[in-house]
Write a structure and sequence with these properties.
Layout lengths: L1 H6 L20 H20 L8 H33 L4 H16 L7 H24 L8 H19 L5 H29 L6 H6 L1 H6 L13
Helix pairs in contact: 2-3, 2-4, 3-4, 3-5, 4-5, 4-6, 5-6, 6-7
């Protein structure tokens, strides 16, 4: 969020009359593959949080973590897909992918305690939330190209408080203080870094490079030359 606020929206994203112009991704199959890679990696991320694998009890806990991680991701994807269909009138793949990631984020704060059904519902709630959050961020003119603020920030907050559902020892104030501590520290530290980078070296490409795409400016090649007509 700090980086987005300092950088500002992409050219043409928001019109002067308040219209929001969609700027779709270049390759949705690759975006889907990336989501599945993250989904697979999350098993190691959550399962590895147990720090050791010794004894039947710990092995069973890791198994529950794997089950709940997968259930939450599936719940998030399905819920986001259905929500997008109801809200936009079409099944939006980008929302579905973000829904899967939202489910993973939602269950990460406590993946061991919930039942599989509860984990699915926690992920599903994250999937619904991420759709409305992405739309809301656009209305605030916060240009977040891949929905990262919504997935990791907004749904991350939901995940922190979802711990209260399955962990009897967790308290609302404890979760709130933890959430605020994380947010303030990360946002302020990031803001300082982004401001320093902007002052020292700049953080935005030229308008021409932004229009053409950074593949040419940084690599000297078109990512999709088959769609380029004529010579430069």
């Amino acid at each position: 969020m700090a980086g987005v606020l300092i950088l500002g929206p992409r050219k043409g994203k928001y019109s002067k009359d308040g219209k929001i112009n969609a700027i779709p991704g270049a390759n949705l199959p690759l975006a889907t593959l990336g989501t599945f890679i993250l989904w697979m990696g999350w098993f190691g991320f959550n399962g590895g949080s147990t720090l050791k694998l010794g004894g039947i009890a710990v092995a069973n806990e890791v198994a529950y973590v794997f089950l709940n991680t997968n259930a939450a991701a599936a719940g998030g994807l399905i819920a986001a897909l259905i929500t997008a269909r109801l809200v936009f009138g079409k099944a939006d793949l980008t929302m579905a992918l973000n829904g899967a990631l939202a489910g993973l984020v939602a269950i990460t704060a406590e993946p061991a305690d919930p039942t599989a059904l509860m984990a699915t519902l926690i992920g599903a709630a994250g999937g619904v939330l991420v759709v409305f959050s992405i739309v809301f961020m656009d209305k605030l003119k916060i240009d977040d190209p891949v929905g990262a603020i919504s997935v990791h920030g907004v749904v991350g907050i939901w995940g922190i408080f979802a711990v209260l559902i399955s962990d009897a020892e967790a308290t609302f104030m404890g979760q709130l203080v933890g959430m605020l501590t994380i947010f303030v520290w990360v946002f302020v530290a990031s803001l300082i870094v982004w401001i320093a980078l902007k002052a020292i070296m700049g953080i935005r490409v030229s308008e021409e490079e932004e229009y053409e795409g950074c593949d040419i400016g940084e690599c000297g090649l078109e990512a999709y030359p088959e769609f380029v007509s004529g010579s430069r």
